[in-house]
Specification:
This protein is α/β, with parallel strands linked by helices. It has a domain of 148 residues: Rossmann fold (3-Layer(aba) Sandwich), CATH 3.40.50.300. Helices cover 47% and strands 15% of the residues. The strands form two sheets. A five-stranded parallel β-sheet has the order 2-3-1-4-8, with helices on both faces. The N and C termini lie close together (11 Å). Bound molecules: adenosine monophosphate. Adenosine monophosphate binds next to helix 2 and helix 3. The site of adenosine monophosphate (AMP) has 19 residues, from helix 2 and helix 3.
């Protein structure tokens, strides 16, 4: 099962993607996480990506496509995956489509987690992330057991630079301009399914499960 998660930054698609991955036993692949891991390890790729991420801009397609295609070619992806944060542009979607078509394959579902902008801005300021293990929390909706500390690895939680209000505004503009056209793109292919992302996390997941059943 090959699934793409669509939705504005902060719509909760990462949380849902992790729940799908767990339930269906497929890898959760987040290009944002791959970039952040590279930044943490000080790789050349990480340094290049950081220039864009810190401004809320998209990392250039060429770089992003390369890391994504490398990742989905790995052995654990042969029975499927959930893509979270990729594709984010029409050219990225086209490259993925062509790569899959070469293997006689295609995306099964593009799930759009729909949330209005005003909810997004409120939500993102409450997000907290663990830069050590990649776990994410929300001070109201998914709080850690101990304030400011990661449940999984015990590291300090932070408000990521790209979740800060001025960056969020940029990211929403970028989303509407560059990523929203993908809703039409996958709609035309007949694989688009939309869920109401303003509902509680468990309800959103139940709606997704009904789609994938
Ligand atoms: P995310 O964790 O998915 O919200 O991604 C964080 C940041 O990483 C984004 O704001 C972009 O700068 C960059 N990024 C992640 N995925 C992509 C992608 N598919 N294309 C371009 N940039 C990306």
């Amino acid at each position: 099962m090959k699934i793409i998660m669509l939705g504005a930054p902060g719509a909760g698609k990462g949380t849902q993607a992790k729940m799908i991955a767990k339930e269906y036993g497929v890898p959760h692949i987040s290009t944002g996480d791959i970039f952040r891991a590279n930044i943490k390890n000080g790789t050349e790729l990480g340094m290049e990506a950081k220039k864009y991420m810190d401004q809320g801009l998209l990392v250039p397609d060429e770089l992003t496509v390369r890391i994504l295609l490398d990742r989905v070619a790995q052995e654990d992806c042969k029975d499927g995956y959930v893509l979270d944060g990729f594709p984010r542009t029409i050219p990225q979607a086209e490259v993925l489509d062509q790569a899959l078509a070469k293997l006689g394959d295609r995306i099964d579902y593009a799930i759009n987690v729909d949330v209005p902008d005003e909810n997004i801005i409120r939500r993102m300021s409450g997000r907290r992330a663990c830069l050590t293990c990649g776990a994410t929390y929300h001070i109201e909706h998914v709080p850690p057991k101990q304030e400011g500390i990661c449940d999984t690895c015990g590291s300090a939680l932070v408000l990521r630079d790209d979740d800060k209000p001025e960056t969020v505004k940029n990211r929403l503009e970028v989303y509407h301009r560059q990523t929203q056209p993908l809703i039409d793109f996958y709609g035309k292919k007949g694989v688009l399914r939309t869920v109401d992302g303003t509902r509680p996390m468990e309800e959103v997941f139940a709606a997704i499960r009904a789609i994938l059943a």
